[in-house]
């Protein structure tokens, strides 16, 4: 009987239980079940990716904010965003965020990973992690020194171009941002069309690449629409990692209102993402003792860093009206029909477009040693994801701070697993981040004023020409800032001397045997770019560690 036919068989005993069938969980399921002796269970809160908009790339417009695809979280009011609460999309479907994200293939910079190694995390430098990126890569241009072919993670060039975007590239060159062919060589400085996780114009999610091809393995079970409530801990078992440690023995989960228990003989692995993994640790009695006690949860293991250290890329979305050129905004019914026909016949055109077609990496000011900001350029505009497109031709120039110094948190609000956690990103809470925001607004205006765009007469719609002084810009940054959906670091790995480290360098939860976190929450510092592929690298390396440690 296949895993698909066993979706909701209750309970059971397994070697490994993976909580989350998303980005990291899909790869982990593939790797851990490759040995037929390992019985592997994957528990996913969402459903199958059986909706057309999970596969047509522009479907992100319909998926984000839709409970069929998204947890639909909201942040707490953020002081740095002028006390606005914003939507915080997280994928709730197999494939996780890779089923609804921008599909941008981005590794980050050499400096990102070398800094992790310099923090004492041996084995996490650029030269250490590059083989794990390459192991699962399937680049359409074939294998080379810094790329690979034949893996499960498909990478292709974008299949749509726009005259307006080409002019933005020219404008970038005019202000000192050179055009480049590849952002994934270790230094992503420059501008170019993003490489995307698509295959011939169809979204390529982690579920498509890693999970669905192996669901026929008899030792792998996927259960969907399952809400994990907590990790079960046995304080009497201990382990070779140290006496007196509690040990993870399985998980309690709900399905259609009923509670079940599944046993893990070897390990429970949390791969639920930077919001849900720390939430689940806290619900299980692992986290800041005062927080747990305040919600009536027995403290099984005090770990103050659980849910802290939240980092994210804040994007400032500037919108420019243009003239004399078409954008997606004004396509109309006929134009949309033509786009649909082009996609149906050729798998090309606007429907293949990632949320961000074109990117730029540069410095917001000269004192930065490597690019510290990333532009995402889109030939469309809207107030926010889920809202209609504007009725006038326009492009959006989003710019985000790649290495923010602001730190937020994720904290449970009750002991009920169904209650959403409190998400507080604390954007723009440091003067350094506000300085980058102000410089970014100035840089974007410089780009829009470059000669190459003059023929389109760009007119700033948001935040608007009335924003001129730096004080005005501080307010404007808070008004137009929004997440670019890259939360990380809420269960960070760190060295023994770091009191806020949740994991060791092998991704094991400190002080708890048989429990790991393997997803974006393990990053000690956020990477300089989109975070999906770094998360897959972490899962690839983490899977190897799990198998090595359980031999």
Describe this structure in a few short sentences.
The protein has 551 residues and is of the alpha+beta class.
Report the uncertain regions. Answer: 1-7
SS field, number of helical segments = 12
Give the overall form: globular
**Class inferred from helices and paired strands:** alpha+beta
Kindly, what is the distance between the CA atoms of the first and last residues, rounded to a whole number of angstroms? 28 Å
Gyration radius, in Å: 23 Å
Helix content: 10-25%
Query: Strand tally, please?
Result: 26
Largest sheet: 7 strands, mixed
> Proportion of β residues?
15-25%
Q: What number is the mean pLDDT?
A: 95
Note down, in words, how this protein is organized.
The protein has 551 residues and is of the alpha+beta class. It has twelve helices and 26 strands. Strand 15, helix 8 (289-294) and strand 16 form a beta-alpha-beta unit. Helix 4 crosses helix 12 (532-549) and helix 10 crosses helix 11.
């Amino acid at each position: 009987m296949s895993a698909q036919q066993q979706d909701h068989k209750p309970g059971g005993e397994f070697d490994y239980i993976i909580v989350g069938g998303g980005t990291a969980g899909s790869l982990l399921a593939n790797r851990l079940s490759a040995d037929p002796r390992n019985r592997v269970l994957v528990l996913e809160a969402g459903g199958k990716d059986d909706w057309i908009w999970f596969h047509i790339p522009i479907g992100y417009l319909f998926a984000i904010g839709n409970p069929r695809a998204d947890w639909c979280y909201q942040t707490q009011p953020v002081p740095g965003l002028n006390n606005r609460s914003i939507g915080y999309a997280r994928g709730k479907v197999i494939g996780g965020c890779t089923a609804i994200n921008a599909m941008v293939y981005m590794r980050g910079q050499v400096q990102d990973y070398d800094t992790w190694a310099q923090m004492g995390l041996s084995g996490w430098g650029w030269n250490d992690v590059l083989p794990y990126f390459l192991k699962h890569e399937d680049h359409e241009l074939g294998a080379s020194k810094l790329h690979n072919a034949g893996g499960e993670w498909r990478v292709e060039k974008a299949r749509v171009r726009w005259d307006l975007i080409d002019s933005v590239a020219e404008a970038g060159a005019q202000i000192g941002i050179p055009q480049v062919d590849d952002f994934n060589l270790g230094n992503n400085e420059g501008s170019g069309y993003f490489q995307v996780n698509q295959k011939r114009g169809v979204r390529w999610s982690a579920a498509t690449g890693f999970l669905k091809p192996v669901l026929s393995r008899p030792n792998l079970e996927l259960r969907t629409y399952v809400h994990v409530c907590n990790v079960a801990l046995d304080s009497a078992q201990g382990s070779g990692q140290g006496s007196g440690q509690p040990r993870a023995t399985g998980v309690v989960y709900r399905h259609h209102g009923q509670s079940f228990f599944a046993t893990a003989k070897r390990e429970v692995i949390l791969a639920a993402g930077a919001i849900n993994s720390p939430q689940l640790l806290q619900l299980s009695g692992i986290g800041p003792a005062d927080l747990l006690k305040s919600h009536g949860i027995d403290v099984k293991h005090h770990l103050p860093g659980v849910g802290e250290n939240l980092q994210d890329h804040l994007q400032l979305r500037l919108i420019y009206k243009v003239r004399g050129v078409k954008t997606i905004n004004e396509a109309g019914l006929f134009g949309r029909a033509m786009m649909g026909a082009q996609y149906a016949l050729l798998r090309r055109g606007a429907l293949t477009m990632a949320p961000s077609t074109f990117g730029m990496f540069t410095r917001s000011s000269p004192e930065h040693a490597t690019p510290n900001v990333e532009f995402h350029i889109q030939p469309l505009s809207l107030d926010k994801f889920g809202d209609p497109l504007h009725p006038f031709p326009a492009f959006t120039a989003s710019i985000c701070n790649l290495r923010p110094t602001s730190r937020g948190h994720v904290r449970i609000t009750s002991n009920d697993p169904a209650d959403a956690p409190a998400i507080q990103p604390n954007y723009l809470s440091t003067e350094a981040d506000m300085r980058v925001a102000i410089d970014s607004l100035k840089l974007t205006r410089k780009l829009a004023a470059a000669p190459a765009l003059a023929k389109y007469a760009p007119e700033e719609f948001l935040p608007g020409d009335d924003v001129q002084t730096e004080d005005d810009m501080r307010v404007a940054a808070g008004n137009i800032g929004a997440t670019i959906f890259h939360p990380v670091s809420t269960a960070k790995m760190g060295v023994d001397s770091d009191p806020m480290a949740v994991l060791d360098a092998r991704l094991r939860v400190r002080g708890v045997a048989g429990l790991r976190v393997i997803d974006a929450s393990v990053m000690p510092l956020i990477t300089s770019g989109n975070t999906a592929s770094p998360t897959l690298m972490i899962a690839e390396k983490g899977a190897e560690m799990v198998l090595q440690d359980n031999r």
